[in-house]
Every structure is written in C-alpha cells, then in structure tokens.
Write a structure and sequence with these properties.
This protein is mostly helical. The chain has 2 domains: about 15-175, Rossmann fold (3-Layer(aba) Sandwich); about 200-405. It has 14 helices and 5 strands. It has helices at about 30-40, 60-70, 95-105, 115-125, 140-150, 160-190, 200-210, 215-230, 230-240, 250-285, 295-320, 325-335, 340-365, 380-405; strands spanning about 15-20, 45, 75-80, 110-115, 155-160. A 5-stranded parallel β-sheet has the order 2-1-3-4-5, with helices on both faces. Helix 10 (about 250-285) runs antiparallel to helix 11 and helix 12 packs antiparallel against helix 14.
C-alpha cells in the first residue's frame, strides 16, 4: 500500500514528499505556484497552509512544523525572501528551524534566495550596522542567508519569480533521480550489495564514489560509525552509571585475586585490539589491488566491539562494592583502560584527517608521495599501571602493619 497522502486519499504508489519552507504571507503566491509545479510532476508538496498539513492538536505550531519535516519530508526546499519572520525562544525563526531540522536529518536540501537579497548580502557583510529596514524586516535574514551560502556551503540558487524555482527544481529532481538509479545499479552489481544495509550513508558514499584512498577512508568511517553506536554505553562509563549487579568484595585476598583477573582481562582486550592491526594489513591490499571490503568492515566492527568490552569492563569495576579503605585501589584499577578508550575514540577521526591532508598535499603538488602511514596501536597507560601498583603496595603495607600491631 502507498503512504497516506495529505489530501486524505490512498495513493497507488508511494510519492515523494517535498516540504516547502519559507515565510508565508509575503511569499504566498510563490509557494502556491511551486506547489502546483511539484504536484504536476507527480510528487506531494507539504505546505503549512494546506488543509492536509499533518497537525497534532497537542503540539504547538513550531512543533508541528518540525514534526512534518522529521517524519514526512523526503526532500526539503528552502526559499529565502526579504522577511525573516517571527523569532522563537531559540533565537531563530520557524523557517530557519525547519531548515536546521532538514539539514540534520540528512535529506536532499535545495535552497533559493531572492536575487535582491544575494545582491545586498555583500553590502551587509561590509557594514552590518547599516540601516536595511526599508528592505528586510530583520537583519537576521542576512545571517540566515550567509549561514546557508558560506558557512554550510550549501548550493544556493537565485530567483526573481516562482518560475525560476520551478525550472531549477525540475532539473535538480531529474539529477537526483538519475543519481538514485546509478547508486542502485552500483549497489546491486557490486560486492557491497549485502554490506550496504549495515553501514552508514557516509561509509556507503565513500564506497560508491571510489575517490582517492577510498578503501582506507571507508575503513576509518566504518570504525567511527561503529564506535559512535556505543555512545550510551560510553555515557554510562563516563558518569559511572552503575546499571549492573555489583560485586561485593570485603576480603582483601579475595579482592586482590579479583583485581588480578580484571587486570588480565584488560590486557587481553588491548592485545586483541593490536592483533586487529595485523588483520587490517591482511585485508587492506597493496596499491592497484582491490582490498577486501568485507574484511575491512569486520576489522572496523571488531575494534568497536572491543571498545564496548572495555567500557563494560570499566562499568563492572566501578560498580564493585568494597570497604572504604579499598576504594582508592579500586579507582586506580578502573582508570587503567581510560587512555586506551580515548585512543580508540580518537583513532578513526584523527586518521581520517591524516588521509585527507595527505591527499590534499598530493593534489596541490606539495607532495609527490601519496603513502599514508596510520598508527592503529592502542596502549595501556604506564602511569595508570604505576599508580595502581603504588596503591596496591600501600594497601598491602598498611594491612601488614595492622596485622603486626594486632599480634
């Protein structure tokens, strides 16, 4: 069955929902013309003034607009005129907020700006304190346009009349359709046909484009994505959220044996991480030879799994209940993998920067050598181990003195 249309009818086939975002009153005719253009192409248009606009009566106007972008919009069309509109508590207008929501959602965003505004923008940049009240209702509309055009780097089309927007949309939607067909063909006809459903859009895009160093960039992006999937677990670790059944260790000898076991576990995790470096080199082929993409994904995912195991390890240690006099030793043990956890988190992002910088130097002619040297080695902090040993020795000495005094 097709999705429910905005006019209360069930479509035979699912249609593309295109959200039109702009101030309403000053651009009402343009909005209506664009709606008709979109409908004539066989798509659904979503406009807040439509009777079929999805409204939850328990939500505010802004919340309903944001929900429509989040839940319904497949494509987002932003039209910036010379009005900014009412400012919300957030300091942004509804249109600005809708745009931010669409950008964060990651759907295709096409932006249009009134030619008069793009002409005035450089003048406002040179003299932002000048009086533009005869043109705009609020100078924040210039800030909004600047954010779209320069800070975010989103392509921005100029328009003078609705027909300009309609003609541009026809071309851009055709380009989008062609790109979707090409992507579909590449996925179905390549080795990533089964892999694509497991990886992020960023990782998939790297595989499809096959730009410079795409295999190592895919590996690092996949690792970053897999690590990010454990954000909640990292927060539990960071804030010492003790959600597990706690161990209770009151006997010193019992505590020492348990700590030796936990210390060995941590060392095994680190050793496994470094073994994965060998696995990476096995799956990552020499230049000119295709790498094993599935194998690289296995390594990236395994890095993240061990990362999660270290976080679980830390939570388990922090959750253990010991007498007060043993607490400093327990804390010292819990700190042992902290540096390794940070290294794992930083590894893919820092390495991606190295790859991009290397490729840029080659493109600019600054370097002829495109070799990329990545360090995937993860270590336990020697300082943390030394602190743990000092705490253990101090506690042992204290217990021996107490035993001697008692005897």
């Amino acid at each position: 069955m097709g999705r429910q249309s905005f006019r209360g009818k069930k479509s035979i086939m699912a249609k593309v929902n295109i959200f039109i975002s702009s101030t309403c009153f000053d651009l009402s005719q343009i909005r209506n013309d664009i709606m008709q253009c979109i409908e004539s192409l066989g798509h659904h248009s979503i406009l807040s003034e439509q009777n079929g606009f999805p409204v939850n009566p328990n939500l505010s106007n802004v919340e309903n607009c944001i929900n429509a972008v989040k839940k319904e919009a497949d494509i987002f069309v932003l039209i910036i005129g010379n009005k900014y509109g009412s400012i919300l508590e957030s300091g942004m207008s509804i249109t600005n907020t809708e745009f931010m929501t669409a950008a964060n959602k990651g759907i295709p965003v096409y932006t249009f700006a009134l030619k008069q505004m793009t002409t005035l923008l450089p003048m406002w940049e040179r003299n932002p304190d000048a009086d533009f009240s005869d043109v705009v209702d609020n100078k924040k509309v210039f800030e909004f346009l600047l954010d779209v055009r320069k800070k975010r780097g989103i392509w921005n089309f100029e328009f003078e009349k609705a027909q300009d927007i309609c003609e541009t949309l026809k071309v851009q939607l055709s380009n989008l359709f062609h790109e979707a067909l090409l992507t579909r063909h590449m996925i179905l006809s390549s080795e990533i046909s089964e892999l694509y459903s497991k990886i992020s859009s960023k990782a998939l895009s790297i595989l499809l484009k096959k730009d410079e160093s795409y295999e190592v960039r895919f590996f690092l992006q996949a690792m970053s994505d897999e690590i990010d999937s454990y954000k909640d677990l990292k927060n539990d670790y960071r804030y010492s959220v003790r959600i597990k059944s706690a161990n209770f260790l009151h006997d010193f000898d019992q505590l020492v044996k348990w700590m030796q076991h936990k210390f060995g576990q941590a060392q095994n995790y680190i050793s496994s991480l470094n073994s994965l470096t060998d696995a990476f080199h096995f799956y990552y082929a020499d230049p000119g030879v295709p790498s094993d993409i599935e194998g690289l994904y296995y390594v990236a995912r395994s890095f993240a799994k061990i990362y999660a195991s270290l976080l679980d390890w830390g939570i388990d240690v922090k959750s253990t209940i010991v007498p007060d006099e043993y607490q400093s030793l327990l804390t010292a043990l819990a700190d042992i993998p902290a540096e390794a956890i940070t290294q794992i988190e930083n590894c893919p992002k820092d390495s991606l920067k190295i790859v991009e910088e290397t490729n840029q130097k080659v493109k600019s002619g600054e370097s002829q050598d495109g070799a990329i040297n990545l360090n995937l080695e993860i270590t336990i902090s020697e300082e943390a181990i030394e602190h743990y040993n000092e705490e253990l020795k101090s506690l042992k000495d204290k217990i021996l003195r107490q035993a001697s005094e008692f005897s």
